[in-house]
UniProtKB/TrEMBL annotation:
<dbReference type="GO" id="GO:0004252">
    <property type="term" value="F:serine-type endopeptidase activity"/>
</dbReference>
<keyword id="KW-0732">Signal</keyword>
<keyword id="KW-1015">Disulfide bond</keyword>
<dbReference type="InterPro" id="IPR001254">
    <property type="entry name" value="Trypsin_dom"/>
</dbReference>
<feature type="domain" description="Peptidase S1">
    <location>
        <begin position="35"/>
        <end position="282"/>
    </location>
</feature>
<dbReference type="InterPro" id="IPR043504">
    <property type="entry name" value="Peptidase_S1_PA_chymotrypsin"/>
</dbReference>
<keyword id="KW-0378">Hydrolase</keyword>
<dbReference type="InterPro" id="IPR018114">
    <property type="entry name" value="TRYPSIN_HIS"/>
</dbReference>
<dbReference type="InterPro" id="IPR009003">
    <property type="entry name" value="Peptidase_S1_PA"/>
</dbReference>
<dbReference type="InterPro" id="IPR001314">
    <property type="entry name" value="Peptidase_S1A"/>
</dbReference>
<protein>
    <recommendedName>
        <fullName>Peptidase S1 domain-containing protein</fullName>
    </recommendedName>
</protein>
<feature type="signal peptide">
    <location>
        <begin position="1"/>
        <end position="19"/>
    </location>
</feature>
<dbReference type="GO" id="GO:0006508">
    <property type="term" value="P:proteolysis"/>
</dbReference>
<dbReference type="Pfam" id="PF00089">
    <property type="entry name" value="Trypsin"/>
</dbReference>
Amino acid sequence: MFKIVFAFAILSLVKCGQSQIAFTNQPCSVRNPKIVGGSEAERNEMPFMVSLMRRGGHFCGGTIISERWILTAGHCICNGLQQFMKPAQIQGVVGLHSIREYLNGIGNGPDALRVDFKNIVPHPQYDCNDVKHDIALLELVQPIRFSSHIQPSCVGSEEGHRSLEQEYGTVSGWGWTHENQAENDRSDVLRKATVKIWNNEACERSYRSLGKSNTIGETQLCAGYENGQIDSCWADSGGPLMSKEHHLVGVVSTGIGCARPGLPGIYTRVSKYVSWMQKVIASRK
Protein backbone atom coordinates (compact mmCIF):
# COMPACT_ATOMS: atom_id res chain seq x y z
CA MET A 1 0.00 0.00 0.00
CA PHE A 2 1.35 3.39 -0.94
CA LYS A 3 0.88 6.18 1.56
CA ILE A 4 0.48 9.86 0.84
CA VAL A 5 0.17 12.88 3.08
CA PHE A 6 -1.15 16.12 1.70
CA ALA A 7 1.24 18.46 3.43
CA PHE A 8 1.60 20.98 0.72
CA ALA A 9 4.97 21.48 -0.75
CA ILE A 10 5.99 24.54 -2.65
CA LEU A 11 9.03 24.00 -4.73
CA SER A 12 10.13 27.59 -5.00
CA LEU A 13 9.24 30.74 -3.08
CA VAL A 14 5.58 30.93 -3.97
CA LYS A 15 2.84 29.50 -1.81
CA CYS A 16 0.16 27.78 -3.87
CA GLY A 17 -2.78 30.04 -4.41
CA GLN A 18 -1.34 32.64 -2.07
CA SER A 19 1.67 34.90 -1.55
CA GLN A 20 5.35 34.09 -1.07
CA ILE A 21 6.43 31.56 1.50
CA ALA A 22 8.34 28.26 1.50
CA PHE A 23 7.33 24.82 2.82
CA THR A 24 4.45 24.89 5.26
CA ASN A 25 1.64 22.69 6.55
CA GLN A 26 -1.02 25.39 6.38
CA PRO A 27 -4.14 24.64 4.34
CA CYS A 28 -4.24 25.61 0.68
CA SER A 29 -6.62 28.11 -0.83
CA VAL A 30 -6.46 26.75 -4.37
CA ARG A 31 -9.86 26.71 -6.11
CA ASN A 32 -11.70 23.47 -6.93
CA PRO A 33 -10.93 22.05 -9.82
CA LYS A 34 -9.66 15.99 -23.59
CA ILE A 35 -11.73 14.09 -21.06
CA VAL A 36 -14.04 11.17 -21.82
CA GLY A 37 -17.35 11.24 -19.94
CA GLY A 38 -16.62 14.49 -18.13
CA SER A 39 -17.98 18.02 -18.31
CA GLU A 40 -16.81 21.50 -19.22
CA ALA A 41 -14.90 23.23 -16.44
CA GLU A 42 -15.99 26.69 -15.38
CA ARG A 43 -13.81 29.54 -16.58
CA ASN A 44 -10.89 30.09 -14.23
CA GLU A 45 -11.91 27.04 -12.18
CA MET A 46 -8.46 25.48 -12.51
CA PRO A 47 -5.93 28.35 -12.46
CA PHE A 48 -2.98 25.93 -12.35
CA MET A 49 -3.74 24.38 -15.78
CA VAL A 50 -1.33 24.80 -18.69
CA SER A 51 -1.83 24.01 -22.36
CA LEU A 52 1.38 22.96 -24.08
CA MET A 53 1.35 23.95 -27.74
CA ARG A 54 3.49 23.25 -30.76
CA ARG A 55 3.03 24.96 -34.12
CA GLY A 56 -0.06 26.68 -32.75
CA GLY A 57 -1.83 23.49 -31.65
CA HIS A 58 -2.45 21.96 -28.24
CA PHE A 59 -0.75 18.59 -27.71
CA CYS A 60 -0.32 18.09 -23.93
CA GLY A 61 -1.26 19.51 -20.56
CA GLY A 62 0.83 20.72 -17.65
CA THR A 63 0.54 22.14 -14.14
CA ILE A 64 1.97 25.35 -12.71
CA ILE A 65 3.93 24.49 -9.55
CA SER A 66 5.75 27.80 -9.08
CA GLU A 67 6.33 31.11 -10.84
CA ARG A 68 9.19 29.60 -12.87
CA TRP A 69 8.28 25.92 -13.25
CA ILE A 70 5.65 23.78 -14.94
CA LEU A 71 5.28 20.02 -14.43
CA THR A 72 4.28 17.69 -17.24
CA ALA A 73 4.76 14.11 -18.47
CA GLY A 74 8.11 12.99 -19.84
CA HIS A 75 6.55 11.64 -23.03
CA CYS A 76 5.12 15.11 -23.77
CA ILE A 77 8.63 16.40 -24.47
CA CYS A 78 9.51 13.58 -26.88
CA ASN A 79 9.36 14.13 -30.64
CA GLY A 80 8.46 11.67 -33.39
CA LEU A 81 12.01 10.32 -33.34
CA GLN A 82 11.71 9.52 -29.63
CA GLN A 83 14.18 12.24 -28.71
CA PHE A 84 13.73 15.15 -26.34
CA MET A 85 12.51 18.34 -27.94
CA LYS A 86 14.29 21.66 -27.56
CA PRO A 87 12.71 24.33 -25.31
CA ALA A 88 12.06 26.68 -28.25
CA GLN A 89 9.88 24.02 -29.91
CA ILE A 90 7.23 24.21 -27.17
CA GLN A 91 5.13 27.08 -25.86
CA GLY A 92 2.79 27.11 -22.90
CA VAL A 93 -0.47 28.98 -22.38
CA VAL A 94 -1.71 29.73 -18.85
CA GLY A 95 -5.07 31.17 -17.82
CA LEU A 96 -6.69 29.42 -20.78
CA HIS A 97 -10.24 28.16 -21.20
CA SER A 98 -11.07 28.08 -24.92
CA ILE A 99 -8.26 27.33 -27.36
CA ARG A 100 -10.24 28.81 -30.26
CA GLU A 101 -10.84 32.06 -28.40
CA TYR A 102 -7.18 32.32 -27.50
CA LEU A 103 -5.94 31.69 -31.03
CA ASN A 104 -8.49 34.16 -32.43
CA GLY A 105 -7.76 36.77 -29.77
CA ILE A 106 -11.32 36.95 -28.46
CA GLY A 107 -13.19 36.09 -25.27
CA ASN A 108 -10.67 35.02 -22.67
CA GLY A 109 -7.77 35.81 -25.01
CA PRO A 110 -6.60 38.77 -22.90
CA ASP A 111 -6.62 36.55 -19.78
CA ALA A 112 -4.66 33.71 -21.37
CA LEU A 113 -0.91 34.31 -21.50
CA ARG A 114 1.78 32.61 -23.54
CA VAL A 115 4.89 31.48 -21.68
CA ASP A 116 8.17 30.32 -23.19
CA PHE A 117 10.70 27.83 -21.88
CA LYS A 118 14.46 27.99 -21.46
CA ASN A 119 15.07 24.50 -20.07
CA ILE A 120 13.44 21.09 -20.33
CA VAL A 121 14.39 18.73 -17.50
CA PRO A 122 13.12 15.14 -17.87
CA HIS A 123 13.61 12.77 -14.97
CA PRO A 124 17.15 11.33 -15.33
CA GLN A 125 15.77 7.77 -15.54
CA TYR A 126 13.11 8.56 -18.12
CA ASP A 127 13.47 7.29 -21.67
CA CYS A 128 11.13 8.18 -24.53
CA ASN A 129 10.66 4.50 -25.29
CA ASP A 130 9.46 3.58 -21.79
CA VAL A 131 6.64 4.67 -19.46
CA LYS A 132 8.69 4.53 -16.27
CA HIS A 133 9.49 7.84 -14.53
CA ASP A 134 7.19 9.65 -16.96
CA ILE A 135 7.65 13.15 -15.57
CA ALA A 136 9.47 16.33 -16.63
CA LEU A 137 9.97 19.90 -15.47
CA LEU A 138 9.80 22.92 -17.78
CA GLU A 139 11.68 26.05 -16.71
CA LEU A 140 10.22 29.36 -17.86
CA VAL A 141 12.16 32.16 -19.52
CA GLN A 142 10.25 34.72 -17.43
CA PRO A 143 8.42 34.15 -14.14
CA ILE A 144 4.65 33.99 -14.25
CA ARG A 145 2.83 36.95 -12.73
CA PHE A 146 0.06 35.34 -10.71
CA SER A 147 -3.50 36.65 -10.68
CA SER A 148 -6.96 35.47 -9.65
CA HIS A 149 -7.07 33.12 -12.67
CA ILE A 150 -3.40 32.07 -12.86
CA GLN A 151 -2.11 30.30 -9.74
CA PRO A 152 0.29 27.46 -8.81
CA SER A 153 -0.98 24.11 -7.62
CA CYS A 154 -0.28 22.59 -4.24
CA VAL A 155 1.84 19.44 -4.50
CA GLY A 156 1.22 16.32 -2.41
CA SER A 157 4.28 15.02 -0.55
CA GLU A 158 5.01 11.55 0.84
CA GLU A 159 5.53 11.91 4.55
CA GLY A 160 2.35 10.70 6.18
CA HIS A 161 -0.02 7.84 6.67
CA ARG A 162 -3.05 8.53 4.55
CA SER A 163 -3.81 6.41 1.53
CA LEU A 164 -5.29 7.69 -1.72
CA GLU A 165 -6.94 4.36 -2.49
CA GLN A 166 -10.70 4.46 -3.05
CA GLU A 167 -10.71 8.25 -3.01
CA TYR A 168 -11.81 10.39 -5.92
CA GLY A 169 -9.68 12.81 -7.88
CA THR A 170 -10.26 15.31 -10.68
CA VAL A 171 -8.47 15.08 -14.02
CA SER A 172 -8.65 17.92 -16.55
CA GLY A 173 -7.46 18.80 -20.03
CA TRP A 174 -8.19 19.73 -23.64
CA GLY A 175 -7.80 16.21 -25.00
CA TRP A 176 -10.02 13.95 -27.09
CA THR A 177 -13.54 13.18 -25.89
CA HIS A 178 -13.58 9.70 -27.45
CA GLU A 179 -10.96 7.03 -28.05
CA ASN A 180 -11.92 6.87 -31.73
CA GLN A 181 -10.33 10.00 -33.13
CA ALA A 182 -12.33 9.60 -36.36
CA GLU A 183 -15.55 10.21 -34.43
CA ASN A 184 -14.49 13.16 -32.28
CA ASP A 185 -11.88 15.87 -31.97
CA ARG A 186 -9.87 17.45 -29.20
CA SER A 187 -11.93 19.61 -26.90
CA ASP A 188 -11.85 23.34 -27.57
CA VAL A 189 -12.65 24.15 -23.93
CA LEU A 190 -11.10 22.86 -20.74
CA ARG A 191 -12.91 19.76 -19.49
CA LYS A 192 -12.80 17.89 -16.20
CA ALA A 193 -13.85 14.49 -14.86
CA THR A 194 -14.02 12.76 -11.49
CA VAL A 195 -12.19 9.43 -11.35
CA LYS A 196 -11.71 6.85 -8.60
CA ILE A 197 -8.17 6.02 -7.46
CA TRP A 198 -7.40 2.30 -7.43
CA ASN A 199 -5.18 0.10 -5.33
CA ASN A 200 -2.09 -0.58 -7.49
CA GLU A 201 -2.29 -4.35 -7.09
CA ALA A 202 -5.99 -4.37 -8.02
CA CYS A 203 -5.23 -2.24 -11.06
CA GLU A 204 -2.50 -4.60 -12.23
CA ARG A 205 -4.76 -7.63 -11.71
CA SER A 206 -7.51 -5.96 -13.72
CA TYR A 207 -5.15 -5.29 -16.62
CA ARG A 208 -3.83 -8.86 -16.56
CA SER A 209 -7.34 -10.35 -16.41
CA LEU A 210 -7.93 -8.66 -19.76
CA GLY A 211 -4.74 -10.04 -21.26
CA LYS A 212 -2.63 -6.92 -20.74
CA SER A 213 0.84 -7.29 -19.22
CA ASN A 214 1.11 -3.80 -17.69
CA THR A 215 3.07 -3.67 -14.44
CA ILE A 216 1.93 -0.88 -12.11
CA GLY A 217 4.98 0.31 -10.16
CA GLU A 218 5.11 2.23 -6.90
CA THR A 219 5.84 5.44 -8.83
CA GLN A 220 2.49 5.11 -10.62
CA LEU A 221 -1.18 5.12 -9.68
CA CYS A 222 -4.39 4.17 -11.47
CA ALA A 223 -7.66 6.08 -11.64
CA GLY A 224 -10.91 5.33 -13.41
CA TYR A 225 -13.88 2.95 -13.09
CA GLU A 226 -14.39 -0.79 -13.44
CA ASN A 227 -17.01 -0.16 -16.12
CA GLY A 228 -14.91 2.47 -17.90
CA GLN A 229 -16.89 5.38 -19.40
CA ILE A 230 -14.90 8.15 -17.67
CA ASP A 231 -11.19 8.70 -18.25
CA SER A 232 -8.48 10.97 -19.55
CA CYS A 233 -7.62 10.50 -23.23
CA TRP A 234 -5.26 11.53 -26.05
CA ALA A 235 -3.78 15.04 -25.55
CA ASP A 236 -4.72 15.06 -21.86
CA SER A 237 -1.20 13.69 -21.26
CA GLY A 238 0.91 15.70 -18.84
CA GLY A 239 -2.13 17.23 -17.18
CA PRO A 240 -2.96 17.02 -13.47
CA LEU A 241 -4.86 14.58 -11.32
CA MET A 242 -5.96 16.59 -8.28
CA SER A 243 -7.06 15.18 -4.91
CA LYS A 244 -10.26 16.29 -3.20
CA GLU A 245 -8.12 18.78 -1.24
CA HIS A 246 -6.93 20.18 -4.59
CA HIS A 247 -3.37 18.88 -4.30
CA LEU A 248 -1.51 17.61 -7.35
CA VAL A 249 -1.16 13.84 -6.88
CA GLY A 250 -0.82 12.51 -10.42
CA VAL A 251 0.31 13.35 -13.95
CA VAL A 252 -1.60 11.83 -16.88
CA SER A 253 0.82 9.24 -18.25
CA THR A 254 -0.40 6.13 -20.07
CA GLY A 255 -2.99 3.40 -20.37
CA ILE A 256 -4.72 1.33 -23.03
CA GLY A 257 -7.32 3.20 -25.04
CA CYS A 258 -9.62 5.63 -23.24
CA ALA A 259 -12.33 4.78 -20.72
CA ARG A 260 -12.30 1.04 -21.47
CA PRO A 261 -13.84 -1.26 -18.82
CA GLY A 262 -11.25 -2.70 -16.45
CA LEU A 263 -8.45 -0.53 -17.85
CA PRO A 264 -8.20 2.64 -15.74
CA GLY A 265 -5.82 5.41 -16.70
CA ILE A 266 -2.25 5.18 -15.39
CA TYR A 267 -0.70 8.27 -13.81
CA THR A 268 2.76 9.22 -12.58
CA ARG A 269 2.58 9.37 -8.76
CA VAL A 270 3.82 12.90 -8.05
CA SER A 271 4.70 12.32 -4.37
CA LYS A 272 7.50 9.95 -5.43
CA TYR A 273 9.23 12.78 -7.29
CA VAL A 274 8.99 15.71 -4.87
CA SER A 275 12.60 15.28 -3.73
CA TRP A 276 13.81 15.22 -7.35
CA MET A 277 11.78 18.34 -8.18
CA GLN A 278 13.19 20.16 -5.18
CA LYS A 279 16.76 19.32 -6.17
CA VAL A 280 16.26 20.44 -9.77
CA ILE A 281 14.67 23.72 -8.80
CA ALA A 282 17.24 24.46 -6.08
CA SER A 283 20.09 23.81 -8.49
CA ARG A 284 18.82 26.45 -10.93
CA LYS A 285 18.14 29.34 -8.59
